[in-house]
Amino acid sequence: MTTPPTSDFVVRTEHLGRVVKDKVLVEDVTFEVRTREVLAIVGPSGSGKSSLLRLLNRLDEPTSGAVYVEGTDYRQIAPPELRRKLGLVNQRPYLFPGTAEDNLQFGPRQRGESLSHESIEQLLARVGLKGYASRNVANLSGGEAQRVSVARTLANSPLVLLLDEPTSALDEASKLEVESAIQNVVHDHGLTCVLVTHDTAQAARLAERALLLEAGRVVRIGSVSEVLHA
Amino acid sequence: MLKIFISNQLYLGLAQALVAALAAMVVVLLARKRGIHLERDTLIAMVRGIVQVVAVGSILLLLLRGPRWTSGLLLAGMITAAGATSALRAKGMPDAFRVSAWSIALGAGSVIALMTWLGVIDTAITSLVPVGSMLIANAMNTNGLALNRLRSDVLAHVGEIETALALGAEAKTSVSPYVQASIEASLIPAIDSIRSLGIVWIPGLMAGMLLSGARPVYAAIYQFVVLAMIFAASGLTSLVSTLLIRDRIFTSAQQLSLQPGR
Q1: CB–CB of A106 and B165 under 8 A?
Q2: Which of residues 112-141 of B touch A (CB under 8 A)?
Q3: Domain ranges of chain B
């Protein structure tokens, strides 16, 4: 019998695993994400960081273990609702054709809602893109596109923001812009966040705790300094 | 020129088939020079095609004297074969054969049944089977084009589809742009056939009717009837097959199961 997750944890995984065609992507991963914390998932390339994040968003199905969201087994939650609660931002922004506002309206529109123009402007301002609502996304720089992608996920009012290597495809200047936007939305607005990154310096800058993955398994979990400097 | 040397109709037909096949193989060789390898597929398709059409011609000869319900059996066999053929164009798509066969049965079969009941298609085997086969063959092509296009589009846009899913979209919403594009693309040949009717091409059925003594205006109108029926059958097939396959490329938890390399 598994221990019911406490309310201090927004997300808790228990012995989570995924095996595809005999290849182990994630194995026996147990951890929790505390309310309002930033947890960095670090590890070498191919260690299963992104696979773990996809499991949290249920874009892939676990082959073992369980995930609890606010104490509820996430298989009891309809996938679209779950994915709104655990909002994922990908390495590449994959913006939909149209304006920044069109992109931010996408999530709310899926549940028959519409954000006011003011709300859109506020969300864009949080990622440092004030006045960008009517901009065609085809004309945005890489950093701007990624920040629109963050704002688009925030438009769903997620419980947890899942960031999958959000700056790895960007140049140094754009990377700093996106990091600053993340700092703003996460720290200043108290949003819970799971950040996947291979950049340990970035993990140290943005996160309070870290989880080190190797070959799909948890090697260490604890404060950033404990994990990164052990 | 062939007629100068060959008087026997059967031998003449074989010689004509050989010459036409050689023309096709020249194109295959030209394609090969540009690194496009069609040799195996084309050769197998041509051998299969000639064997099949001669076999069907022979069966038709026997069926002409049989009861009318035999045409239903023949059309059902054609639908099954059409399903298997167009499923090959959807490699990697789950349940492609069943989806194709059901879609062609529903698309072409319902149009054939309705038009036969209304008297647009004559119930005589000599009319029902050839006209029905035209509808099935075109539905097969449309189905193959639709599934092939949908497969390529989905595989090329996995990131966009999963982004939509991650933002809370239902599975059907996440692929709707690609489903629409595949339906539109699959119907281009059927629409262009109607648009260019009589200007770019005079199809075989009309030529056959003229040769058998039908009035030219009636033969022309009936050709339009056939092309409109082809559009109806193809369009319905494409709508059904993309709908059926759309539901099969996602798991019950709305995860995209059609992925590159999986």
Answers
A1: no
A2: none
A3: 1-63, 68-248
Which residue bears the tokens 């028959």? A112
pLDDT 10s digits, A69-92: 999 999 999 999 999 999 999 999
8 A C-beta contact, residue A207 and residue A194: no
- Whether this prediction's pTM lies above 0.80 is answered by yes
- Give the 3-state DSSP-derived string for B105-164, with helices as H, strands as E and coil as C: HHHHHHHHHHHHHHCCCCCCHHHHHHHHHHHHHHHHHHHHHHHHHHHHHHHHCHHHHHHH
Q: Is CATH 3.40.50.300 correct for A9-228?
A: yes
pLDDT tens, position by position, B200-220: 666 676 777 777 777 878 878
Each domain of chain A, given as residue ranges in start order, spans: 9-228
Calculate ∠ Cα B1-B6-B10, nearest 5°: 120
Hey, what are A129's tokens? Answer: 């893109």
* Contact call for B173 and A110, based on CB within 8 A: yes
Name the residue facing A152 among B165, B167, B262 (closest C-beta): B167
Contact A215, A47 (CB under 8 A): yes
